[in-house]
Amino acid sequence: MLSSGHGAVDFASGAVPALLPFLAERFDLTYTATAAIMLAATSSSSLVQPLFGWLSDRQGAMWLLPAGLLLAGLGIGLAGVVPTYPLVLVAVFVGGVGIAAYHPEGAKFALYASGRRRASGMSYFNIGGNTGYALGPIVITPVVLWLGLSGTLLAALPVIAVAAAVSLALPYLRTVHPVAGGTPVAVGVDRPGAMTLLVGVILLRSLTWFGLITFVPLWLVTLGHSKAEGNRLLALMLVTGVAGALAFGPIADRFGLRRTLLGSTLALPPLVLTFLHVRGVPGTAALMLVGACIVGTFGVVMVLSQSYLPRHVAMASGLNVGLAIGLGGLAALALGAVADAVDLETALTVCALTPLLAAGLCLLLPAPYGRVAVEPAEAV
After folding, report:
1. For the chain, what is the domain count?
2. CATH code: domain of residue 188
3. Residue 125 and residue 107: Cα distance in Å, rounded?
4. Considering 3, 147, 179, 356, which has the largest number of Cβ atoms within 10 A of its Cβ?
5. What 3-state class would DSSP assign to 341?
6. pLDDT (tens digit, 9 = 90+) per residue, 75-90?
């Protein structure tokens, strides 16, 4: 249930970059104005997601799961039909609030359900989100080509349906949570210094990720390809991320969270540069591997966050996902300005260089000795 809800809410999130070429054409937008749509969708998540995490840690808030799904569906549905560019920004902002509402509570329950194999369990939770995000461009592109931008209303219906299903399943979720108050029992101490270093890694990796998902479709258009072809390549990158999550979770459980994060980060610069400068199958394969290295390690980063803040696991998840989304949106706006001032290739080259700084910070991350108990409070 948690993974399915994650898939639905991230489907709404993944639909936004797929809509950008269509919205840019409709409203005659610059690269900066186009990136501002992504910023509107992501800034709402970053601003309020830690607040939702605080609420979840303090008293539990299972109602956030269906409510977040409902808002996300409404936001993406309205984004294609509102008549003006400012109202598009409002619609995707509202959808971002829904995305922010779902993640901290969902990740907290997923941590409990994962038992002691936390990296694998969180990867399974994220497989739903990764799959939903990948389905965004896969579904949105043909629907919009068929019905025009009003097709977003049709695409939003599955998200709203999952919201209803999750709402009906909440009584079952209450029976499987070990603590009546809705908060896992914490063991260990919070380490804000370690979390600060991890935030730096998240920021630098997010710049690469959101730069690519924002501008890969537009880059393909500049090379003479259609918008559908650009979104198809974006979808391939996202789908490979699902496979990456299946691989990197068990790898991290076996070889360590930090080593897995470092290795995947070091692989990014050559892969992004290969995509930019090598055409055909090698370039496409490189971009797909980028998706595996970034999306596939979302669960690894989330477990590290919860390990560094074991007494505030929902807040850790909110900071992790919220900062990744929100700061990534700001980075996309900055890269849009670079693309307008210089060119799009230069902006995408920046995406290839920032992981080197992220790898340096990975080397400074301490061992994640903090943990969260998954036994009932009475047993502890």
Report:
1. 1
2. 1.20.1250.20
3. 8
4. 3
5. helix
6. 999 999 999 999 999 9
